[in-house]
Amino acid sequence: MLTIQQIKADPQLIINRLAVKGFKAEKVIARVIALDDLRKQLQLKSDTAAAELNKMAATIGKAMKEGRKEEAEKAKSGVAILKEEQKALADELQRTEEDIRQELLNIPNIPCEAVPEGTSAADNVVEKTGGPMPDLGPDALPHWDLAKKYNLIDFDLGVKITGAGFPVYLGKGAKLQRALIQFFLDEASAAGYLEVQPPYVVNEASGYGTGQLPDKEGQMYFVTADKLYLIPTAEVPVTNLYRDVIIPGDRLPIKNCAYSACFRREAGSYGKDVRGLNRLHQFDKVEIVRIEKPENSYAALEEMKDHVQGLLEKLGLPWHILRLCGGDMSFTSAITFDFEVYSAAQGRWLEVSSVSNFETYQANRLKCRYRGDDKKTHLCHTLNGSALALPRIMAALLENNQTADGIVVPECLRKYTGFDLIN
Predict the structure, then answer these.
(1) Residue 272 pLDDT grade (very low, low, confident, very high; cuts 50, 70, 90)
(2) HEC profile for 320-373?
(3) 404/140 Cα distance (integer angstroms)
(4) Its pTM surpasses 0.90
């Protein structure tokens, strides 16, 4: 979340930048400033009362020592009144601080200057394009038909067991899925990311730490009895490893990767965009997470983009990179780049990765800090990206690599699958 210092340093700048995300901030910024002014007044009154209590205690002690018991007893009644007043001040101060926190939790991150203006995905900017475009001909099958033809994925079985959006992978489909996971993890390890195997459920504090709460509460599966949330991405547990941590400056950067299943309710999704593997409630993903010093985070962002691009190039998929406009960015992001691959049989681009820099927004929620050379603590910058999400990668691989003889497995995966053709 934003800090009070950020807001009060230049409130109009914050208002202007949040407008790029389509967020009208004038009223909430005014409330935060007013509440912080009230907090300062209450703190001053509380400190003054505490000083007066200390003074009165010293007076009472001196009177008792000198045998002026009646004077001391009279002063004690004044102390009791002042203690009640101080308690009331402390309660009001606590309520005010909580009011400030709640207001701040509902203010999105400010987009950085490089974020283009715009209101929807139509305003995103294509930054870079690469990879060979397949020419499949008019008889090309979409992945859901290929999955049925070669017995790779059974969508109906998933509906029977759980519901729509929970496919069952079979035979070579399951092996291809596992091969992709291992390939992505091995590539991340080779790039210096330490692998982490995180829990798949998190507590409320973790959801608030990375910004899924309160913004995306309705999109997360909730285990009511235990008050735990199924993770929508490994970003949540991995980034929360550093909640309430002061990291020695010489330990940065921290680079983690993690495979996990991901769970998303995807409420309101319907139509062609959800067919087959296009949009699932449970899917697999490898995530990369970085904790950086602020001065290094944008160089780290470029490294992460290069890493994702390299994966797509090795898989031989056609890809492009989008710089998201303000209106299409997430609540927590300062800047986001989406990677999409082209699905030849569907004739459309499919998002397979988002790489984002959150600057200090998540770190402030997490209280994730590092100790600088000046011996003071400073907020870290956090970044993450999908490297990669599997369902749409699988869809594009099946569709783009179909031939008359079967589906050709990319060379980089063959050592994991043990076969080079699905037929």
Answers:
(1) low
(2) EEEECCHHHCCCCCCEEEEEEEEECCCCEEEEEEEEEECCCHHHHHHCCEEECC
(3) 10
(4) yes
